[in-house]
Amino acid sequence: MINFKKKFWFITIIFLFLSIYVKTFAVEKLDLNDIHIGRDDAPIKIIIYASLTCPHCASFHLKELPKIQEKYVNTNIANITFKDFPLDLAALNASKLLKCVKKNDKKKFLDEVFLKQSVWGSGTTIEEINQNLFKISSNHGIDEIDGGKCLLNEDVENSVLNSRIDAQKNYEINSTPSIIINGKKLEDAPNFKNIEKQINKEI
């Protein structure tokens, strides 16, 4: 009986150690950084604050962003950082899943979320919306089980919420999309023409 007890406690200790290790390792594997495209030494730094449920953000991402990338990012004039500014719970959950996707798939996930915004966002409950989002995240390595864990991860949620807090604190942002160019908030409508005009002032 004594040997059995010793063996039981030994196995229990090992199990607890492995549980802690696996949990820690899982957190360490997450890349909580923002999506960044373009050369780090580009003279023009563009930050885009967006809510993933915002129709104007989707329109900007799909129609205006490709023009900016072609003229300024691909020519090493500018780099772009995409930051979270969720306006509702659905956007918060979408941004959390974005954080959990592997680094090389983040931009593809973001593109698909905006492209299919009207589809996944059409759920009548947050549970239905989450299921719709899992269908998209499963295309980028996050299935429903991992997606559920991601939505409950406090580190991920804090990363997204802190992005919004910093945006309000540093740039007084209260709507999306909001564009920051070399530390200055674009006050005009967020489109290629106005962004081009602001970049020309900075070059």
Structure description:
The protein is of the alpha+beta class and about 200 residues long. It is built from nine helices and five strands, in the order αββαβααααααββα. The chain has a single domain (about 35-200), classed as Glutaredoxin (3-Layer(aba) Sandwich), CATH 3.40.30.10. Helices cover about 60% and strands about 10% of the residues. α2 (about 55-75) links the parallel β2 (about 45-50) and β3. The chain is globular, with a radius of gyration of 21 Å. The model is unreliable at about 5-30 (pLDDT under 50).
Fraction of residues in β-strands: 5-15%
**Element-level helix/strand string:** HEEHEHHHHHHEEH
- How many β-strand runs? 5
Oligomer: single chain
Biggest beta-sheet profile: 5 strands, mixed
| The CATH C-level class name | Alpha Beta
Distance between the termini: 80 Å
**Low-confidence regions:** 4-28
Helix content: 55-70%
Number of domains: 1
CATH homologous superfamily heading: Glutaredoxin
**What is the tally of helical segments?**
9
Radius of gyration: 21 Å
Write the layout of secondary structure elements.
Blueprint: H1 2-29, E1 35-37, E2 44-50, H2 55-73, E3 78-84, H3 89-100, H4 106-115, H5 117-120, H6 126-137, H7 144-152, H8 154-171, E4 178-181, E5 184-185, H9 192-202
Parallel strand pairs: 2-3
Antiparallel strand pairs: 1-3, 2-4, 4-5
Helix pairs in contact: 3-6, 3-8
